[in-house]
Design a protein that fits this description.
The chain has 304 residues and is an alpha+beta fold. The chain has 3 domains: 169 residues, Sandwich (Jelly Rolls), CATH 2.60.120; 51 residues, Arc Repressor Mutant, subunit A (Orthogonal Bundle); 51 residues, Arc Repressor Mutant, subunit A (Orthogonal Bundle), CATH 1.10.10.60. The chain contains 10 helices and 11 strands. A 6-stranded antiparallel beta sheet has the order 2-3-10-5-8-11. A 5-stranded mixed beta sheet has the order 1-4-9-6-7, with no helix packed on it. Strand 6 and strand 7 form a beta hairpin. Helix 5 packs across helix 6. The longest helix is centred in the middle third of the chain and has 19 residues. The termini are far apart.
Length: 304
């Protein structure tokens, strides 16, 4: 009886994309990107994957499909049963970090991606739900109205991000993490609530610090350290004490400083924008008009 030789196909090594260094990945082609303290927002394309392989990310990622409709063939982690999902514009893919799974697609899809380092996922999950990010499950081509509502804000931050962008991205990331734990984990749990706010002494300390550093690139972690609290508990307590999340309070204070400069100095609008802590004339004018209903130039003309 003749011997029959079989040639075994060598299994391909799973591919992990590091969103903190997208230029190092041959799979990801970044168009624009922004990173702050383990939070990464980018608009990117993926190279074609017609042969199929296991792909994941080094960080948890939420990727919103921006291009035309496409078919994505995939297998859930730990399964060899292939599925095909028709992915339309605005649908989201959610993939916990270090959790590659089989995927195959044609073409070069364009995505808007929010990627978050694992230690941030675990910290918020443990503080709020008592669980780490390991309970989150991959999801392909989901229609999520909350994600669809917020992803234009990520995109706008990529285009116009300023000095308050770090704080703003942290707030967006924290909200996204809580949303994922509520809707994409094995069991839902109600978040814990910190009662009592910051207290008079802590609040005064934080406000004094903000006033002294309005022009700096402040983060929630910086402010939480001043208060002596974890970043998550600080955000909850600050909002309870002031009625505003930290990033909105910071923008409001910068606008107040700018308004005083408009009325009392002859500095140009661009000079005032930088002095008050905004990245550019346009970034400052957008926030000013949103809060006060007029442009900085119109405000100066009307009140001087």
């Amino acid at each position: 009886m003749p011997y029959i030789m079989f040639r075994l196909r060598k299994a391909r090594k799973p591919e992990l994309i590091d969103f903190s260094s997208p230029e190092r990945s041959s799979r990801l082609v970044p168009l624009t990107s922004l990173s702050h303290d383990g939070i990464h927002v980018m608009r990117s394309t993926l190279t074609e994957n017609e042969d199929g392989r296991s792909i994941g990310g080094a960080q948890l990622s939420i990727a919103v499909h921006l291009g035309s409709a496409m078919d994505l063939e995939w297998c859930p982690p730990g399964s060899d049963r292939k599925r095909t999902t028709r992915v339309e514009r605005g649908m989201a893919h959610i993939n916990p970090g270090n959790n590659p799974f089989y995927q195959r697609w044609k073409g070069a899809p364009e995505l808007l991606i929010l990627a978050i380092d694992q230690h941030i996922i675990d910290r918020v999950g443990l503080e709020t739900f008592g669980r780490s990010g390991s309970v989150l499950r991959p999801t392909v081509g989901v229609v999520d109205s909350d994600i669809q509502h917020v992803f234009p804000i990520w995109q706008r931050e990529l285009e116009t991000g300023g000095p308050d962008g770090r704080l703003f991205l942290e707030s967006l990331a924290k909200a996204a993490i809580i949303h994922l734990f509520r809707h994409y984990a094995g069991n839902e749990a109600a978040p814990s609530v910190l009662r009592g706010g910051l207290g008079v002494a802590r609040l005064r300390r934080v406000i004094d610090y903000i006033e002294a550093h309005l022009e700096d690139d402040l983060s929630i972690r910086d402010l939480a350290a001043v208060a002596g609290l974890s970043a998550h508990h600080f955000g909850l307590a600050f909002r309870q004490s002031t009625g505003l999340p930290p990033h909105r309070y910071l923008v409001a204070r910068r606008i107040e400083r700018a308004r005083a400069l408009l009325l009392t100095t002859d500095l140009s609008i661009t000079q005032i924008a930088h002095t008050a802590g905004f990245a550019s004339h346009g970034h400052f004018a957008g926030h000013f008009r949103k809060l006060l209903g007029v442009t900085p130039s119109r405000f100066r003309l009307d009140h001087r």
